[in-house]
Design a protein that fits this description.
This protein is an alpha+beta fold and 138 residues long. Helix content is 37%, strand content 13%. The chain has helices spanning 3-12, 20-31, 69-83, 86-89, 127-136, and strands spanning 40-42, 48-51, 102-106, 112-117. The strands form two sheets. The chain has a two-stranded antiparallel ribbon. A two-stranded antiparallel ribbon has the order 3-4. Helix 2 (20-31) runs parallel beside helix 3 (69-83).
């Protein structure tokens, strides 16, 4: 049941959402050559000086998460990582279906510093919760 609430804000945006991590991820993908690779304008030092979503009409460019910005990042990851490397990433058994399932972050020594288990298809941890949790441990 978590599919729609997790997916729709990527298309419709969220005035109260946060987009810093999306822009950082788009930059990482763009520098790696993943398509679409023209969303951000970067200066010679690879700093972001412009974002095509800054020109979103109807005042939506000021939203925390702008319409289609997260969806564009998902597309970039789908094409540039999942499809491009599918043979390496697919399950060994073709009868299996992949699903995220959860998130775990461990320190060098193997100690768990963050753990999260999904509640259903397309349920994902909040990236800001993760960052706050791992920042508190350092």
């Amino acid at each position: 049941w978590m599919t729609l609430p997790a997916v729709l804000p990527g298309y419709f945006g969220n005035p109260n959402g946060r987009r810093e991590w999306i822009e950082t991820s788009l930059k990482q993908g763009q520098l790696a050559g993943r398509w679409p690779d023209n969303i951000l304008e970067l200066d010679n030092d690879q700093n972001i000086v412009g974002n095509k979503f800054d020109n979103t009409p109807f005042g939506l460019s000021s939203w925390g998460r702008r319409p289609f910005e997260l969806a564009t990042l998902r597309l970039q990851s789908l094409i540039g990582i999942q499809i491009k490397h599918y043979d390496e990433l697919k399950p060994v058994d073709d009868r299996c279906l992949t699903q995220q399932g959860g998130c775990a972050i461990v320190e060098k020594g193997g100690n768990s510093i963050y753990s999260w288990v999904d509640r259903g298809l397309c349920d994902v941890p909040d990236i800001h919760d993760i960052l706050e949790e791992i920042s508190a441990d350092n």
